[in-house]
Request: fold
Amino acid sequence: NALVATFDLSTIEPDPLQLVRLWSEPRDQEVAGLIAAAFAYGRADIIVANVGALLERMVPSPAAYLDSFDEREARCRFAGFSHRFQKTGELVAFFAAIARVLSSHGSLSALFREVYDESDADIGPSLARFTSHLAPIGAPRSQALRHLVTSPDDGSACKRMNLFLRWMVRRTEPDLGLWTFVDPAKLVIPLDTHVHRISTFLGLSDRRSPDWKAARAITDQLARFDPADPVRYDFALARLGILDLCSRKR
Reply:
């Protein structure tokens, strides 16, 4: 709890969430959030630079841009895009998938509300249903999309999608608390290499692989301290790693 109190909005940079917080309309925050989370792998400063450049090309509204999305125009607008393994083709396919959801449901929150089941033990089944709408198996470029919108059905820790859900669901800063229909107790920690390493040092998990089972186990341990909001510890744990404040070796 003292560690959580050490980090607040003044320590958010670099973090893709800082880009999402530039928008004020919920639909824009949802779209910007999903884009920022999907590309949140690699060095934090590079993520912020690359995603920031994308969102700058979608002003004044990311949601409005995708409401009238045109793939041919997007291939020109985002020509030359590159982030690690993703290039313009994957980006345009991702945007087209989000645009389809906005067209059919009106917003990302409306889709998640439709697939969310509060009787599930955790957010995993709802997340799997959500990502299956965004990247249906067998759909064109579904393989490329499923790298961006991972599913717990694959055994993946789903760090980036759990990060998106943390931003949308948690009620206190730095998160946005937009999706009040989701119980924060259902969230699973966004498990990246930093959080996995530090959680192992702290004895929260002994699993060697940062997979869904490890994320679930760490979340269960954190729930001993705050059963209503176990993922509130994530921002502080991640800051220790991103800001290089925790040794690489125990």
The longest strand covers residues 82-83. The two ends are 21 Å apart (CA to CA). The chain has 14 helices and two strands.
